[in-house]
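Researcher: Can you fold this with nicotinamide-adenine-dinucleotide in place?
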Amino acid sequence: MKIAVLREGATGETRAALMPESVRGLVAQGVEVRIESGAGERASAGDQSYGEAGAIVTNDRRELIRSAEVLLCVNRPSDDDIAVLQPGAVVIGFLRPLDDSASLIQLLERRLTAFAMELIPRSTRAQTMDALSSMATIVGYKSALLAAERLPRMFPLLMTAAGTIAPAKVLVLGAGVAGLQAIATARRLGAVVEAYDVRGAAGEHVRSLGAKFLEVDLGGIKTEDAGGYAVELTEEALARGRELITKHASVSDVIITSAQVPGRPAPLLVTEDAVEKMKPGSVIVDLAGSTGGNCAASSPGETVDRNGVVIMSPLNLAATLPVHASQLYSRNIAAFLKLLIDDNGELKIDLNDDVVGPTCVLHNGEVVNQRVAAALETAARVP
Ligand code: NAD
């Protein structure tokens, strides 16, 4: 089996899909790994380290793609790259199958097989492959650092000869993987942290990190699906959450938002009114920018100022820590690949496997995932 890894082309992308440590394991399984020169450069993995791990490093990008049986990527490859892949080739990466399903059409037309790392099930068996959690861990950590760096106050409580410095108050909205990491990081820096999530189970996690969990009476409605993900709430339930958030925003120095509903626009949690009630100098870090944002005043990819309140909405925070982001992603990909390689180092695709099946979006020119098929149908109806 021939695996190819390209230098990522997206603006601002620094991550590599495969790091030398993972190459070593694949080569030991009898796989041929080809890397485009410079693929790991921004993640501190030079061509030499890939060569030493047993990969073939090349400058011939076109030939690399043309001969690939499996193309590993962080982001979906460009149209030009996809056009060079052989029909039947496999693409594995963050393919945005639910929020940008239209971009899968070219892969479909080329009769490619595609696995979306976003769809790796959140099961115990697939934990080592959970790339969403890997990236969310990094994003959550970095969001707290960004806020601390921007805030004109310190995070910890300090007793000095010149008197006491009160700790910063941080409010975290959405206590999934990213939110919990933001809480843990803000707590380590000494902030007093509160958090809100619609899933009751999040309360226990929040409290175990030494933060206060804010509870809202949502009238007993269903807030999560069978997979443990939050569902889209009714307008009334959302309004109850916003009311509580507005009250707590006025006494918070920092708000970090990470609330998401898979395949849906991010819920609006911080209203213009809530931003207006915050003290000048306060900071909001909105981590949901790629799906529209949790804050009414945020502008995805930009930092804006509203009467002295700074609102940041970074779109690819994981790329600001490329070494660890690439290491984790590469390990996730390598663990997933183990399910696609037979004893002779050849490609085998078993769609009945409970991780391989749900992760596959396209196979032999067909959409094989129902949620993706529905998203594609909707995309086709929108002019
Ligand atoms: P996510 O990125 O989809 O969403 C982030 C958080 O936003 C979630 O906690 C969600 O409940 C919350 N949220 C959604 N709508 C909200 C609203 N209106 N108000 C407030 N909060 C809102 O979530 P994630 O971090 O990817 O995790 C999703 C689920 O998967 C969680 O239950 C998590 O514990 C679980 N998980 C399980 C495993 C595993 O078992 N292997 C691994 C990772 C995550």
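Model: Folded with nicotinamide-adenine-dinucleotide in place. Residues 2-129+325-381 form a domain with the Rossmann fold fold (CATH 3.40.50.720).
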